[in-house]
Amino acid sequence: CVVFLWFFLGMEKVVVCPYKRPNALYRLICFPWAGGGTSQLAQWGKLFSSSVEVSSVRLPGRESRRKEPFAKDMATVVNEITSALLKELQEKPFAFFGHSFGSYISFAVALHLKEKYGLEPFHLFLSGAHAPHSEAFLPIKTVSISDTKDEDVLKYIEILGGTPSELLQSEDIKEHLILTFREDLRVLQTLSFEKAERNIPFSCDITCFNGSEDKSHDVEAWHDLTSGDISFYELPGGHFYLLEPSNEIFLTKHITKCIENAGL
After folding, report:
1. What pLDDT digit, counting tens, does each position of 114-155 carry?
2. Range with the lowest mean pLDDT among 123-137, 188-202, 248-262?
3. What is the rounded CA–CA span in Å between residue 45 and residue 206?
4. Which pairs count as long-range contacts for 150-158, CB under 8 Å and 24+ apart, including other chains?
5. Statement: residue 5 has pLDDT above 50
6. By C-alpha distance, which of 59, 121, 111 is closest to 90?
7. Domain 1-261: which topology?
8. Distances (CA, A) of 108 to 70, 126, 132
9. pLDDT at 264 over 80
10. How many whole angstroms separate alpha carbon 115 and alpha carbon 10?
11. Where is the signal peptide (predicted)?
C-alpha cells in the first residue's frame, strides 16, 4: 500500500492528467516547450474523445515542483519520466506529442523506452523541432548560456511568443521564466544522439508539425529515424502556432484520427 502510494504520488508529481479516463484505449503523453509547464497541453484532455487519455509531463523547477532543483541533464529528465510512466505505458498503447524542447524530450524518452524496455510509442507527433541528428540542431548545442544576458533571453522569449504579456509584468514571474528557460536549454544541450549506420531506432509513424511563419526546421531528417510512415503539416502562425484555437482544433482532430486509424 505504501509502495503504491509512493508510486501514485511520484506519478502525479511528474505526470499531470486532469481528465482521467481509466477506460481509455490509448494514452497520449504531451511534452511542453522550454520554460513551459503543464497548463496548456494537459487541458487537451477535454478535446479528445473518451478513447484517449491525455497527460502532460511536468519537469522540476516549475508549478508544484517550483522549489525543486532543476534537472542537470537530459539523462536525469529521461530517467525520471520513464520511472513515473513505465507501469502505465506497459498497460496500453501510447503516443507522444512534443513541442519544441518537448519534441526532443519525447524523442529521448522514446529512445530510452525502446532500447531498455523494448517499448515504443505507436506514433510520435513532433512540433517545431529539428531531427536531433541533423546539422540544423548543432547551433542549439553551441549557444553559450552563461554568457547570454537576461534581457537577451527575455527578448528571445518575447519574439517566440507563447507567454501572455501580463505575466511578464510581474518581476518574480519574469525572473523565474528566464531562469527556467536557461535551465531547459542547458538540459537540451546535453542531448547526445549519434545516428549509427544502418540503425533505424523506431518503427512507429512520425508526424511533424510546424508554424508557417516559424523558422524552418530540418524535419526531413526524421525519415532516417523510423521505418514507419512520416507526414508533415504546416499550420498558420509562428513558433507557438499551436496555441491558436483553430490550430489546436486541427491538431487534436488530426491526432485523434491518427490514433484511431492505427488499428491497434
Report:
1. 999 999 999 999 999 999 998 888 888 888 877 788 888 888
2. 188-202
3. 21
4. 150/175, 150/178, 153/178, 153/181, 153/182, 154/178, 157/35, 157/181
5. no
6. 121
7. Rossmann fold (3.40.50)
8. 18, 12, 9
9. no
10. 23
11. 1-16
Contact 221, 133 (CB under 8 A): yes
Active-site residue list? 100, 239
Dihedral sign of CA atoms 70, 74, 79, 82 in order: positive
Asked if 67 and 227 touch (Cβ cutoff 8 Å), the reply is: no
pLDDT at 113 over 80: yes
Give 152-170 pLDDT, tens digit per residue. 888 877 777 767 676 677 7
User: Which residue has cell 518581476?
Assistant: 171
Give the domain ranges of the chain: 1-261
Cα(79)–Cα(112) distance, integer angstroms: 8
